[in-house]
């Protein structure tokens, strides 16, 4: 009668809209999930990476991070911290995040050294091999006979550098006392040197027939 015996021939679609076939298909076994999806029985589920949390002392750039394939996650650190690891990570096809987990570590300033003939006192106190954390303060002072040049107080900034100027202690020197008519200064250095060292004493001796007015001894202080 011109009819082909048997069931009606027809094409049945794959069970999930995210299925594809890689060639001529003869059955459901030829339905595979497209890129970015993974099979779960006869259905396709979107590939997901583990949910990320922002690093301690840090935050996500966009507030939250998705975890589906090709989702990007950017991390930053709070003021006073620096990021170690990957600042941007992508959710990959193998459900793993690219890069390395980010960490926020406190920024530190390099150790300061006490100036020659000076004293350095810092807070908080740290070990001999450690650098200083942000907001640490260091105060400088000089031994007697020296005066301070630079910043007496320096603070570790969030940029991981010290504010202020480098500090040194320079020796105190005094101008030699002015010449006095009918008198000389002793010792001889008080008459020759233009600048005298700290602690130098100069004694005025008047010539015969003259009396001294004013202090007999002058000291460089």
TrEMBL record:
Disulfide bonds: 77-104, 142-169
Domain of life, per lineage: Eukaryota
Keyword Disulfide bond: yes
Organism, scientific name: Homalodisca liturata
The protein, known as: Sushi domain-containing protein
Keywords: Disulfide bond, Glycoprotein, Repeat, Sushi
SMART domains (UniProt xref): CCP (SM00032)
UniProt domain Sushi: residue ranges: 47-106, 107-171
InterPro entries named among the record's database cross-references: Compl-Cell_Adhes-Reg (IPR050350), Sushi/SCR/CCP_sf (IPR035976), Sushi_SCR_CCP_dom (IPR000436)
Pfam families, per the entry: Sushi
CDD domains to which the protein is assigned, alphabetical: CCP
PROSITE patterns, A to Z: SUSHI
């Amino acid at each position: 009668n011109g009819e082909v015996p048997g069931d009606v021939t027809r094409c049945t679609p794959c069970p999930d809209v995210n299925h594809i076939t890689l060639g001529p298909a003869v059955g459901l076994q030829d339905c595979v999930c497209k890129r970015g999806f993974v099979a779960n029985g006869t259905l396709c589920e979107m590939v997901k990476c583990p949910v990320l949390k922002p690093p301690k002392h840090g935050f996500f750039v966009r507030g939250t991070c998705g975890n589906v394939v090709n989702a990007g996650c950017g991390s930053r650190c709070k003021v006073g911290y620096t990021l170690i690891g990957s600042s941007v990570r992508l959710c990959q096809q193998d459900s793993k995040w690219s890069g390395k987990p980010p960490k926020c570590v406190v920024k530190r300033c390099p150790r300061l050294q006490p100036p020659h003939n000076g004293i350095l006192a810092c807070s908080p106190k740290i070990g001999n091999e450690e650098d200083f954390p942000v907001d640490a303060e260091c105060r400088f002072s000089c031994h007697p006979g020296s005066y301070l040049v630079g910043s007496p107080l320096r603070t570790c900034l969030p940029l991981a550098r010290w504010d202020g100027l480098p500090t040194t202690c320079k020796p105190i020197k005094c101008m030699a006392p002015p010449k006095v008519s009918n008198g000389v200064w002793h010792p001889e250095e008080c008459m020759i040197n233009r600048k005298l060292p700290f602690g130098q004493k100069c004694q005025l001796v008047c010539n015969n027939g003259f009396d001294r007015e004013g202090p007999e001894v002058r000291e460089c202080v």
